[in-house]
Amino acid sequence: MADDHTMRSRGYLPHYDRPGLIQFVTFRLADSLPSSTVAEWEAELARLSREEARQKLQRRIQSFLDTGHGEAHLARRDVAEVVQNSLRHDAGSIYDLRAWVIMPNHVHVILRVRHGHTLSKAMQRVKGASAHGANRLLGRTGTFWAREYYDRYARDTDHLTRAIAYVRANPVKAGLCATPEDWPWLGEMDLPGGDEVVLPPTYSDPRSHGERPASPGRPPMS
Q1: Backbone angles phi, psi at 99, to 5 degrees
Q2: CA-to-CA distance for 213 and 151, rounded, in angstroms?
Q3: In this predicted model, what pLDDT tens digit does every residue of 71-84 receive, in sequence order?
């Protein structure tokens, strides 16, 4: 059985991997963000505290992704369908889906991993299956998704509500459609037991050490 909770960190991307948390996850195409751009941003933010640098970096990344940089393979209907099917495949067994949106070069998903499983393994399955199917459709080989993903667990029901609103608004904000309902690759489901937010035992209110809660205009993981 998987370990019940793991904190792992890679650079500015700490992951709290614990079943039962409602997680907001973003993963992106390999060519959607040049590594040189991230390196420049990290150098600029090095003078800040780790937490402030992480927040600012993730906000920059989200804004950049919405410009649709790269080949944007997910803009193809058949490729987006492969990704959506991969997301839904393990829903109800490994994790439960709350909301998701597939953008031209990245994906946002809100989910809760079930006990006995981990977020990292869930993402490995989703990305692996969808990469295989997408590469086959595109007649290409090689890396499809960027290695890393970004995650942030819901702090309370208000935080979760803002995260869902962000997912719904993303294609509208990016100028891809007029209303969320117009975007075919956006979905919502009810979580078993409702939207009850569970916090890790080590949680402390971010406002107690200067972190601002996310506002509707900011990515909810920041």
Answers
A1: -160, 155
A2: 15
A3: 999 999 999 999 99
List the domain boundaries for the chain.
15-32+68-196
Decide: 24 and 218 in contact? Cβ < 8 Å: no
Instruction: Report the b/e string of 21-60 with b at 16+ CB within 10 A.
Output: bbbbbbbbbbebbeeeebeebeeebeeeeeeebbbbbbeb
Contacts of residue 127, Cβ cutoff 8 Å, sequence gap at least 6? 27, 144, 145, 149
CA distance 7 to 16: 5
Measured at the CA of 193, the angle between CA 103 and CA 150, to 5 degrees, comes to: 30
Task: Provide mean pLDDT across the span 142-158.
Answer: 93
Q: With a cut of 50, say whether residue 216 has pLDDT above it.
A: no
pLDDT in tens, 29-69: 999 999 899 899 999 999 999 889 888 988 899 899 999 89
Domain 15-32+68-196, CATH number (from 3.40.50.1980, 3.30.70.20, 3.30.1330.60, 3.30.70.1290): 3.30.70.1290
The answer to whether the beta carbons of residues 29 and 192 sit under 8 Å apart is no
- Binning the chain into helix, strand and coil, the percentages to the nearest 5 are 40, 20, 40
* Residue whose token pair is 């909770």: 5
Residue 28: closest CA among 106, 129, 132 = 106
